[in-house]
Amino acid sequence: MELKICHLYPDVLNLYGDGGNIICMKKRLEWRGIKADITNLKIGESNSLADFDLFFMGGGQDFEQEVLLDDLHRGKDKNIISAIEDGKTFLTVCGGYQMLGHYYENQAGVRCEFLGAIDFYTKSKPGRLTGNYSFRCYPISGGSTVFGFENHSGRSYLGLDVSPLGKVINGFGNNGEDKTEGVRYKNVFGTYSHGPVLPKNPELCDFILKTALEQKYGKCQLLPLDDDAEHRAHAAVARKMMY
Ligand code: GLN
């Protein structure tokens, strides 16, 4: 078995080491004897995206998100929307997650029109939502408790029929108001969790990998791994949040 993974905009959306999520997914596949074929797709590079099984987009500053707009609207937007509607698996973090919504409005009231692939919008407000945080994924997204780090001025508000990825336990999440964190739409996982989020949250990583493998090959089981180090890292952040 093999997963073809597309890392979208690794050149500009890689805040707080979000690219480490690609390394984590690759290793957790290879440790199980599953090939991981990674393709980087940078600004100006085009691809139909049809051959990929899993996509990753990391976070970026407002400026970097604005830089991407032209490139997005030169065709990647349509290909990303098609991939989402075809049930391809996406992990998108912070700025990369925000770009799937209708728009990002900065504090000057200027709107960056994004993909509109999922019914939500983001508005930047004074005061960044920053710090270690935790949330519990809803059962449809595996039900695991995730510890991560968030740093965003954008507040995302989900449409009535759009499911969050999880419910905030500690911290801010989508907007610091409604206790929602991230988004789950078809096989898209969106989160504000930087870090990278996956190495210290192996259950979430495996759930995302299983989603992509089952979309491609049908029902499958992932062999268990020795996650002692991962669970110790997970517990270390949990302890940090208690004090
Ligand atoms: N620029 C966006 C915001 O501030 C996203 C930030 C990020 O990706 N960490 O909300």
Describe this structure in words.
By secondary structure, this protein is α/β, with parallel strands linked by helices. The protein has one domain: Rossmann fold, CATH 3.40.50. The protein is 29% helix and 31% strand. It is built from 5 helices and 12 strands. It has helices at 20-30, 62-85, 95-98, 202-217, 228-242, and strands spanning 2-8, 35-41, 54-57, 89-93, 103-105, 111-113, 120-137, 145-158, 166-170, 180-181, 183-185, 188-191. The chain has a 6-stranded mixed sheet. Strands 5, 6, 7, 8, 9 and 10 form a 6-stranded mixed sheet that branches. Strand 7 (120-137) and strand 8 (145-158) form a beta hairpin. The radius of gyration is 17 Å and the shape is globular. The termini are far apart. The model has no long low-confidence stretch (mean pLDDT 95). The structure holds glutamine. Residues 15, 59-62, 65, 94-95, 98, 124, 151-154 line the site of glutamine (GLN).
Summarize the structure.
The chain has about 240 residues and is α/β, with parallel strands linked by helices. The chain has helices at about 20-30, 60-85, 95-100, 200-215, 230-240; strands at about 1-10, 35-40, 55, 90-95, 105, 110-115, 120-135, 145-160, 165-170, 180, 185, 190.
Write the H/E string, N to C.
EHEEHEHEEEEEEEEHH
Q: Report the helical percentage.
A: 25-40%
- Top-tier CATH class: Alpha Beta
Distance between the termini: 44 Å
Q: Overall pLDDT, averaged?
A: 95
